[in-house]
Amino acid sequence: MKLFIKHMVCDRCKRVVRQELEALGIQVNRVTLGEADVEMLPKGVTLQHVRQVLEANGFDLLDDRRSIVIEQVKTSIINEIHHDRRERPVHQNLSEYLSQKTGYDYSYLSHLFSTSEGITIEKFVIAQKIEKVKEYLNYDELTLSEIAWRLGYSSSQHLSNQFRQVVGMTPGQFRKEAGSQRVALDVVGKPK
């Protein structure tokens, strides 16, 4: 049985979900971002119990197909940008990859995502990339050109312009302010 879980953005999230499900006596086969593959629920444990435990830890149990598809899109994008788990072949564009991953046409995904989230997939990707740029700038280990290359920008100037539009300051200014404006991944790209 597969459980779809919202707000899983990191390996710690996967660990917490596994621990909480196992504490309920559920046999967990595998946990990935946004999903937990489990055996049938033990006697006396309902989906409502699972939902309560997950919500107590900042997660949501998804039970409608539209929400599940949106979470799959978000998780795929977050994996691509933040976790260096590039499942997408270099030659494949993101829209093709998301369609393949979810089994839905990209135009449907795009409409569903923007209707539900109040932001386009493109703007969500940009918001996630900018958050990753902030992380790199905080560590101060890479040049702007190296950051641009890692995140697939055509140039450091393109990255710098996009960063300034989203954050309101240049990457250099942000670096000097020591990352005063980082945001948790599960709220990146949410309308303000």
Count of helical regions: 9
Structural shape: globular
Structural class: alpha+beta
Distance between the termini: 36 Å
Helix proportion range: 55-70%
Number of strands: 4
Radius of gyration: 18 Å
Taking the sheet with the most strands, its summary is: 4 strands, antiparallel
Q: β content, as a range?
A: 5-15%
Strand order of the largest sheet: 2-3-1-4
* Unreliably modeled segments: none
Q: What letter string, H or E per element, gives the SSE order?
A: EHEEHEHHHHHHH
Could you tell me the mean pLDDT? 89
Please provide a written account of the structure:
This protein is α+β, with helices and mostly antiparallel strands. Helix content is 55%, strand content 9%. It contains 9 helices and 4 strands; from the N terminus they run βαββαβααααααα. It has helices at 11-23, 47-56, 65-82, 94-102, 106-117, 121-139, 144-150, 156-167, 171-176; strands at residues 2-6, 28-32, 35-38, 60-62. It has a 4-stranded antiparallel sheet, sandwiched between helices. Helix 3 crosses helix 5 (106-117) and helix 6 (121-139) crosses helix 8. The radius of gyration is 18 Å and the shape is globular. The mean pLDDT is 89.
Short description:
The protein is an alpha+beta fold and about 190 residues long. The protein is about 55% helix and about 10% strand.
SSE layout and pairing:
Blueprint: E1 2-6, H1 11-23, E2 28-32, E3 35-38, H2 47-56, E4 60-62, H3 65-82, H4 94-102, H5 106-117, H6 121-139, H7 144-150, H8 156-167, H9 171-176
Antiparallel strand pairs: 1-3, 1-4, 2-3
Helix pairs in contact: 3-5, 3-6, 6-8, 7-8
